[in-house]
Each structure stands twice: as C-alpha cells, then as structure tokens.
Amino acid sequence: MGTFKIEGGIQLKGEVQPQGAKNEALQILCAVLLTPEKVTINNIPDIIDVNKLITLLGNLGVKIQKNEKGSITFQADAVDVSYLETEAFKKEGGSLRGSIMIVGPLLARFGKGYIPKPGGDKIGRRRLDTHFEGFINLGATFRYEREDHFYGVEVKGRLKGAYMLLDEASVTGTANIVMAAVLAEGTTTIYNAACEPYLQQLCKMLNSMGANIKGVGSNMLIIEGVESLGGCTHRILPDMIEIGSWIGLAAMTRSEITIKNVSWENLGVIPSVFRKLGITLEQRQDDIYIPAHTDGYKIKTDIDGSILTIADAPWPGFTPDLLSIILVVASQADGDVLIHQKMFESRLFFVDKLIDMGAKILLCDPHRAVVMGHNFNSQLKATVMSSPDIRAGISLLIAALSAKGTSTIQNIEQIDRGYERIDERLRALGANIVREQ
C-alpha cells in the first residue's frame, strides 16, 4: 500500500488542467459494447477505476488501440460473452462498481448480461434495484445467485420498449437502462431519469452512433429503439468533481490558482455553493481563477440570518461527491455551516480524522455535521491518517496541505482511483508531497 507524506502550510500558485470526468468515462466506455464498429474516446482519465474497466473490456474481447495520451479506439466486434461466467470475471467485475454498466449493453446486443456484486466506495448501502427493474420492464428475466452474490439478466430475441417511472433518479441506473433501450424494439419512456451532464454526454454519444433519444437534459427520456448502432468519436468532459476539489484546495491553502478549460456551462450550482462559503472565484473565459484568500473567507447565512445548510441532491442539485470537500474547506471559514449528506449514510464518517487535526465539527448523526470554522486563527495540525474512499481521501489531502507539520496519508490507492497523478500535479503548483510505497 502506498502513502503520501505532505508538508502542510505551503502556499501554492499556478495553473491546473482538470482531468477527464471519471463518472462519464465509466458510462461511455461501457457503451462501446453496443456496436461492432470502431469507437474512439478522447480525454480518458488515467486513473485506477477507469483503467480497471478498460482491462475488463479487453478481457471480454474488445480490441483496444491506444492513440495519443487520453485517446483510445475500441472495437467490440468479437465479444466473448462466455467470459461473464468465469471465476476470473467474478473477481474482476466485483472490484469495480462501474462494471455494473456493462450489463445493459450486453443484454441489448447479446441477450445476456451478468455481474458480480460490484465494489467501489464503502459509503453505505448502494442499491442496484433501479438497474434490474429497468431491464425487467424491457422484458428481461432476472436471476440472483445469493451464495456468489451474482446477478444476471437474459432475454430471448430483442428487448421490448416500455414506459417506466424510476423510483430514484439513479445516474448509473438511468445510463444502464438507456444503453439497453436504444436497441430495444419500440418506444421506451424513462420518467424521473437522471439528467447529469455526464448522462447527457452518453445520450449525445449514442445519438451520434445512430440512436434516437429525445428529451436529453430533462428527467423524461423518450427512446425509439433501432436495430443497430455504428461507430463514433467522442470527447469526455472535464471532471466537475476534480474542479470542485481544486477550488476547495485553493481556498483552504490560501493559494492563487487558475483551473483551465472547466466547461462552465456544465458546472451547475457548484460555483455558487463555493461562493456561499465566501470563496471568491472568477470566470475568465472558460477558466476559473481563484485568488489567494489571504484574509480568509466568510460563510454567508440564509436571508433570515439562520445558519447556512449545504445539502446534496440529484442534478441540478449539488453533487454528493463534493460534500466532503465542502466540509473540510468550511473548517477554516469564518462562520458555521450545517452539512447534510442525504444520499449516503456513511460518507461523513471520516470527520473524526479532521477533529483529530483540530477541526471543530459536531457530527449530529450519519447524515449531518455542523462545522464551526476557525477563520485561520487556529491552524490544523499534522497527523497520520488513512483514506477510506475517493472523496474523503482528497478531503484529507486538502486538510494535510493546509496543516502545520508533516502529515501521512495511507491507503492512497483510494485517491488514485479518482484523481490522475495528483501528487505530480500538486508538486507543479509548489506543494511538498512525496509518494512512498
């Protein structure tokens, strides 16, 4: 297991280019299974979770041709569906939550799709019902092998279009159902569909391949099934979660940083939520400029003067993946804020590590924490800690960069799952961070 050694309290400066979006990449890469023709994907992030999925696709028989950095051409013209029932696949698929999204394309094109219980972050219960109820609505037969935690769906002939009202606006669930429905016979209507930019990107890519999806960007998608799809070239958006992480890091370390080419139109409420914490950020063409917050940043109150509450919600609400960042950044703000994590019940359990560093945080229950900011009057102190998941890991890294002394973060593979060469990019800004094995 690797560790980071971080000397905190150093002011950083410079420009950073965000990586391609992890959550979009996991959807887009699964979609290459829908056609035997070549599909070229650009701006692919070089991170553990994405690389695991690419390896899985290769083991399924997908041809993989690496072009320049971040660009790969895939061709799924010789897929070996029998690989899905091997022990090797059960082990491989179970290590990555994104592997669930191969099921929809495989079911639509080959009539069967299997997956072991997928892994990923340990942030509470993450149900798969939306995925499989959607497939059942399209005419698939579902089976579950309890001993092996192995899920399967099968269909004879083509799937049949159907109307469905999702009981949750699941992003991966919507993506999986959309990829199955594009090759189904007839019309599929998905109401209460997720409408995140990355889901929009998937729909736009599928339409460029010959699919017929209407309502992209809304919570009602209408899909006219087609018999086959062709190839395409697609570019992945910059990662909004990484962009938010850089904003938080700049404020917490009182650094002057410019984040390049952020695709402002796809950031939603992210900039305004950081501004509620008192953080100054400017739009300069398609870049975000964050000045050095030498005088700190003051949390705004609600208009009636009550404590600010920041909560997650499905898009266009605030993404749950950034609440950990908001929480750590608030620890040095001037003022108090209530963080309400509604969508996952274990995501706030890393706050004990911040409390050990000197942060003033009251954990009310698994979903709510009150943060009382120090306003930089009391610097966090360095410590030894372990990264429990991707977003908590980057939050602890931000805390360490602002702390007094040298901190050690263990289990950094969790951070590497979602952030590309984070230590190299931080050193380019002036950080003192060393990776040790």
Lay out the secondary structure.
Blueprint: E1 3-7, E2 13-16, H1 22-31, E3 38-42, H2 48-59, E4 63-66, E5 72-75, H3 87-93, H4 103-110, E6 112-116, H5 129-137, E7 141-145, E8 150-154, E9 163-165, H6 171-181, E10 187-191, H7 197-208, E11 212-214, E12 220-224, E13 232-235, H8 240-252, E14 256-259, H9 270-276, E15 282-284, E16 287-290, E17 308-311, H10 323-330, E18 336-340, H11 351-356, E19 361-365, E20 368-372, E21 384-386, H12 390-402, E22 406-410, H13 413-416, H14 422-428, E23 432-436
Parallel strand pairs: 2-14, 3-13, 9-10, 17-18, 21-22
Antiparallel strand pairs: 1-22, 1-23, 3-5, 4-5, 6-8, 7-8, 10-12, 11-12, 14-16, 15-16, 18-20, 19-20
Helix pairs in contact: 1-2, 1-7, 4-6, 5-6, 6-7, 8-10, 8-12, 10-12
